[in-house]
Amino acid sequence: MSVEIRVPVLPESVADATLVAWRKQPGEAVNRDENLADLETDKVVLEVPATTAGILQEVRVAAGTSVKSGELLAIIVPGAAAAAPAAAAAPGAPAGGAPKLGPAAQRVAAELQLSNPAIAAAAKGGRVSKSDLLAADGGKSANGKPASAGSSAGPGGAARAAAASAQSAPAARPPSPARAPGVRGERRVPMSRLRQRIAERLVQAQSTQALLSTFNEVDLTQINGMRARYKDGFEKQHGVKLGFMAFFVKAVIEGLRRFPVLNASVDGTDIVYHDYYDIGVAVSTERGLMVPVLRNADGMGFAGVERAIAAYAQAAREGSIALDDLTGGTFSITNGGVFGSLLSTPIVNAPQSAILGMHKTQQRAVVVDGAVVARPMMYLALSYDHRIIDGREAVQFLVAVKDCLEDPGRLLLGV
Prior knowledge:
This protein has 10 helices and 21 strands. By secondary structure, the chain is of the alpha+beta class. The longest helix has 18 residues, at 221-238. The radius of gyration is 24 Å and the shape is globular.
């Protein structure tokens, strides 16, 4: 008896999805729970797992087609012929079978030709990420540390890692092909679902909100000193690096406590004040910008913030981030400085009412106690909805954030 493979139930806010690519072709053997295809919504990439082991007999929908919940995608003929024997349970793997691989991890495993035991050994909590597989396969570098994706350690390590990285996500902006001098060409490439959604949200924000921006600059001397003093002990104790973002998240929360209208949103003719702090942190991926949300960020310590951001960033770039991780949020932070931006005006992530933009840190000449000295300076930009946020509140909020960053002891004392 054949088994039908249908589109999984899509989230309530998602009407349809695009079948991006088939990971298996008709006639190929598949294992139970193996990913057959990738579905792209306007927010996340979803997997279509095989519900039984057997042979993929037929695909009913071509890549690039829009599909809805429950739509028939493929037919599997159950049987003993599976793609490979199920890996024996290993420490960290679920007791009932092989560990679960996301779309990016499956592509890396295939590219690196990893055996099932090697995949199972890399499992952490029953799921294997791309970085887990690269770490499991990579040779040892000269200093004895595992080779990174860009390392050339091990036979063919650089080539394999580069190929794996290239296949980890679809290229949103394909490179221009080589052309003869003087030849003028054009290419038409459809927008991805995520890019369409980003475009829609940005236009919506600019057309429905009265956006205005205010600027300030912050001296990061104190934060740089704290990171230099405590970074090794912090990483050793918490297993995560002490970055800048935790300081900014904490400073933003302190500012929102003092000026709660920046944590509010507009609903018709009402202002909805949120008595919680769900802070969105923008993450750049190959598919476009995503903004995962740190729920109840005021209850997180510095280590909790850094750990959550690192996990969200990895999941976003591997295409395994959940839709719930991207919804909601009462305020957002975006960091264009990682790409070299010196100053910009970020657009508010509606229905939120404000967003903080971080920028590149530069040594600049500033006057301190009457003397000209070089300090690590960063420009800050606050874009806000002028319908409910007055300039006075916006400026005072940004000054409060600046004060907390220039004197981090305020974050501990609440002053």
